Amino acid sequence: MKTLLKSARIITASDEFSGDILIDGERIKALGAGLEADGQTRTVDCTGKFITPGGVDVHTHFDLPMFGTVSSDDHYTGHKAAAFGGTTTVFDFISQDEPTLAESVQSWHAKADDKAAIDFGFHMNISHFDDAVAKEVPALRDMGINSLKVFTAYNGRLRLDDGDIFRVLRIARDNRLLVMVHAENGDVIDVLVKEALQSGHTSPEWHALTRPAAGAVESVFRVIQLAKQAQAPLYIVHMNTAGGVRLLREAREQGLPVMGETCPPYLFFTIEDLKKPDGAKWICSPPMRSLQDNQVIQKLLGEGVLQVMATDHCPFFYDGTKPILYEGNPVAIPGKELGKDDFTKIPNGLPGVGDRMLLMWNYGVRKHMITPQQFVAQHCTNPAKIFGIYPQKGALLPGADADLVIWDQDNPITYGVEVARHRTDYNLYEGWKLQDTISGVYLRGKLIVDNGQWMGAKGQGRFLHCDDPQVI
Ligand code: DUC
Ligand code: ZN
Ligand code: ZN
Fold first, then answer.
1. Integer Cα distance of 308 and 238 in angstroms
2. Which of 115, 257, 296, 380 satisfies CB 3.0 to 4.6 Å to 471 for a cystine?
3. Cβ of 311 below 6 Å from ligand 1
4. 459 Cα–ligand 2 center, Å
5. Are residues 444 and 431 in the same domain?
6. 309 and 428 fall within a common domain
7. pLDDT of 410-457, one tens digit each?
8. How far is ligand 2, taken at its centre, from the CA of residue 185, in Å?
9. Whole-prediction pTM value?
10. Residue 30 is part of which domain span?
């Protein structure tokens, strides 16, 4: 089956032109002006529309157990929400919960494979490290995994000490794996949380006040120096402090192979949002920072200091005692209300996988924070390159998977929970106006979102075996 997308504005990470895209089966066959359809080709008129590659969101947490509940999107509902927002590839983090890494990988396949509605890859969390784990790490490559995540926070739960992070970095270097790091100061956080609770501070803003920006900046500095000593590349997840992103810039100027990711909420929200009566909606780790942090990150994103825009999608209901209707059925999953009397019990995480492309196009590109080419680079091409799935993903090139987003120019809508398809009861961007919207999404040549209609299916998503990570 062939499809010819005719007369679109085509946007890539390096270019922008008017033309056509010919899809043959699951792949892009040709791009250019004046492509002709033969008798078996379905032609779609894309006049007035623009096309980008399908989005690649390399930071999601579907079906993640936390604080006695679970993130409210699973590998089907989250994939579907992603697709409505123009994302056709996601990467989820495997918890190191089983006796071996191989068993942990298997447990994540068991959650994801039958539900997947878009294509997906995995990162492996390393939250306990010893000689046995060290021996197992290289085999992850045969399982299609090329990235490890380590933590400098969450003491006693996920954190590794600096020596173990250094060892992980060296093993990763020797096996062409990329280390991703969550950089906050776990020791300081523990002291501040204890003091806050002793003083009777239980409201949501104390989540942010007990996880200071300076601790994140110090930790970013430390992990960059650890990677330098290990002579290993490094990818810093969800960067959200001005100081941290400036350190990233400095490291890259020195030629160090360090890359950085941020997420839309860190551009648009601050600790002031946590002070609102419904402040728990904004609770995630690392937390919202200051207006100055927002502004510096926006500016440095535009200067190309950060390579990737991801989401850290990890939604919870705001009020998980009240069901919502999902695909016609009532669903209620315990959420943020679990911490109404104690900020340390509020599940950490935000919805966002479906928001990312729409928000960043309308409030990033249209507000001149980033160019259309930077948008495609940060949301599609760079993450695909870094995690070893380029040019199959993240590119509009002959031979690439036909993952495409058809955008409607000047088709204004008001965004919010009713528009976003996340399985939760709130959206951070409630009431925000979107000027350009998404009318069609193709996954490997199949139209899975068609003018607000879900045409996809559970189980159609494929696991991606990642090739070598790239430093960009
Ligand atoms: N931060 C969150 O807020 N949720 C899930 C994991 C993380 O790092
Ligand atoms: Zn993290
Ligand atoms: Zn995360």
1. 9
2. 257
3. no
4. 27
5. yes
6. no
7. 999 999 999 999 999 999 999 999 999 999 999 999 999 999 999 999
8. 12
9. 0.99
10. 2-52+397-454
Same domain as 433, residue 287: no
Strands 258-262 and 308-309: parallel
Is the CB–ligand 1 distance for residue 205 below 6 Å? no
Q: With a cut of 90, say whether residue 215 has pLDDT above it.
A: yes
**Do 137 and 222 share a structural domain?**
yes
Give the Å distance between the CA of 346 and the centre of ligand 1.
12
For residue 314, report the phi and psi dihedrals to the nearest 5 degrees: -155, 75
One domain for residues 226 and 148 = yes
Q: Of the residues 356, 386, 416, which one is the last residue of a structural domain?
A: 386
Cα–Cα distance, 330 to 55 (Å, whole number): 30
* pLDDT band of 292, cuts 50, 70, 90: very high
Output the pLDDT for position 188: 98
**Alpha-carbon distance 235 to 181, whole Å?**
6
Instruction: Name the 3-class secondary structure at 438.
Output: strand
DSSP 375: H
Mean pLDDT over each residue of the chain, to the nearest integer:
98
CB 260 within 8 A of CB 242: no
The answer on 188 and 156 residing in a single domain is yes
